[in-house]
């Protein structure tokens, strides 16, 4: 769909279409839940709402078995425990998650315009990869809370790129409390901040001391303070069960069902042998995952392009995670509109189409094996499900390699917007003087429009 499409000429049209898509899915979900043995509502949503019901009665949310989340989520869903309006009130959480999708999309548009110098129409086009994505809309309207993480992560990216350091620290602390994985963005943001100082330093001592800057100190302290304050508050309210279920559980988590991870079969075997005191490899499975996502990728890429680095980090974190479900894909899909404009997947359409097909077909192969196991009762762990997991993992590793190569090939500090901003400044300077008169601004606008048209045609 081209930029000339009427849909992208107005934010109201794009967001109305995105909202309408989610409303249709919400009502369809009510129908399917009422008339089909296969429910539309995600099982996790039942866990969320059960926990909210316990909280409404003055109990701990962890009285609900398998609730592994911050109490904040149960508090947010308290209206689902109120009596009245039947299934409509029960769907409050789904509506909340769907609205979060839209807010995340709005933040995407802001980042695309401020950091990438895009026109409104072009920013809306790329943001529609999230806003009008049926997969994103389906997951949120089924009752998955990933949309809330999308808001937090996009708000975090916007705050750090706008140099609102304290706000970024608060959002980082909140995000890590809500879901552990956003902590991987901390090293990238610290490395990205004040990145020019170490480049101008000569000696090793100067380079080391240049790493300690007011911005980095502020980000670190505000993030740690927010994270600590939330955790201390929740611990005082709910005690050790809060720590066990929200954090410690994930170190030894075994979840072999609905799991795309290459660890899937090993987790299954580990669950069977756990009672015999075997080696609990699940406690060590996160080592290669964290090395890639929290150390190697930030060090290599963060100073080149922060949004692209965050995409690569998240993609690596999900691909190498010992538990990988469809909801986790949303963690990196939110960054896709920020990466694609300068990606080789768009510059070489055949490569992009091949990657998309490989990603989808590898999932389909795994789902076929999972269907045989879960619904037909055919034992397909070996070799079917295991091989399907390896194929999907290999596809993800190849895509990750392309992303890392693309981001690593950027030769400036702020991504696609940098060249546009420099070109615009040069165009304005060519009109004479350093002040931006109305005529100069018009020249800049025309030049930027030409640049966008050239990028679009390529």
TrEMBL record:
The chain crosses the membrane at residues 12-31, 85-109, 165-184, 217-238, 283-302, 314-340, 352-371, 383-405. Its EC number is 2.4.1.-. InterPro entries: PIG-M. Mannosyltransferase involved in glycosylphosphatidylinositol-anchor biosynthesis. Transfers the first alpha-1,4-mannose to GlcN-acyl-PI during GPI precursor assembly. Required for cell wall integrity. It is found in: Endoplasmic reticulum membrane. This is GPI mannosyltransferase 1. GO terms for molecular function: alpha-1,4-mannosyltransferase activity; GPI mannosyltransferase activity. One of its GO terms (cellular component) is glycosylphosphatidylinositol-mannosyltransferase I complex. It is a multi-pass membrane protein. It comes from Rasamsonia emersonii (strain ATCC 16479 / CBS 393.64 / IMI 116815). GO terms for biological process: GPI anchor biosynthetic process.
């Amino acid at each position: 769909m081209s930029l000339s499409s009427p849909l992208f000429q107005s934010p109201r049209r794009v967001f109305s279409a995105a909202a309408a898509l989610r409303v249709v899915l919400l009502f369809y979900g009510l129908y399917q839940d009422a008339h089909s043995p296969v429910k539309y509502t995600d099982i996790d949503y039942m866990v969320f709402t059960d926990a909210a019901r316990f909280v409404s009665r003055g109990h701990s949310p962890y009285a609900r078995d398998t609730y592994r989340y911050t109490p904040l989520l149960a508090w947010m869903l308290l209206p689902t425990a109120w009596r009245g309006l039947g299934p409509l009130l029960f769907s409050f959480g789904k509506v909340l998650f769907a609205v979060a999708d839209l807010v995340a999309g709005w933040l995407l548009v802001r980042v695309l315009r401020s950091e990438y110098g895009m026109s409104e129409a072009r920013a809306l086009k790329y943001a529609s990869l999230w806003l009008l994505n049926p997969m994103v809309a389906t997951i949120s309207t089924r009752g998955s809370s990933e949309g809330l993480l999308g808001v937090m992560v996009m708000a975090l990216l916007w705050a750090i790129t706008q140099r609102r350091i304290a706000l970024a620290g608060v959002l980082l602390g909140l995000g890590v409390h809500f879901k552990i994985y956003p902590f991987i963005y901390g090293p990238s943001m610290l490395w990205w901040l004040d990145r020019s100082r170490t480049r101008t330093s000569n000696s090793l001592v100067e380079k080391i001391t240049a790493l300690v800057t007011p911005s980095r100190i502020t980000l670190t302290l505000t993030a740690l303070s927010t994270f600590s304050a939330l955790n201390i508050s929740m611990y005082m309210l709910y005690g050790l069960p809060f720590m066990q279920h929200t954090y410690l559980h994930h170190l030894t988590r075994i979840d072999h069902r609905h799991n795309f991870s290459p660890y899937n079969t090993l987790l299954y075997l580990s669950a069977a042998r756990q009672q015999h005191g075997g080696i609990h490899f699940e406690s060590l499975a996160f080592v290669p995952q964290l090395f890639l996502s929290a150390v190697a990728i930030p060090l290599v890429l963060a100073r080149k392009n922060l949004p692209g680095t965050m995409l690569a980090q998240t993609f690596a974190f999900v691909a190498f995670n010992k538990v990988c479900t469809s909801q986790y894909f949303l963690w990196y899909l939110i960054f896709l509109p920020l990466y694609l404009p300068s990606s080789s997947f768009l510059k070489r359409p055949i490569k992009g189409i091949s990657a998309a097909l490989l990603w989808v077909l590898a999932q389909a192969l795994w789902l076929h094996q999972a269907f045989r196991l879960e619904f037909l009762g055919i034992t397909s762990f070996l070799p079917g499900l295991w091989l399907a997991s390896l194929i999907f993992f290999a596809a993800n590793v190849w895509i990750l390699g392309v992303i890392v190569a693309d981001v690593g090939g950027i030769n400036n500090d702020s991504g696609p917007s940098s060249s546009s901003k420099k070109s615009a400044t040069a165009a304005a300077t060519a009109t004479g003087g350093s002040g931006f008169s109305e005529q100069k601004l018009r020249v800049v606008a025309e030049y930027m429009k030409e640049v966008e048209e050239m990028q679009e045609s390529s």
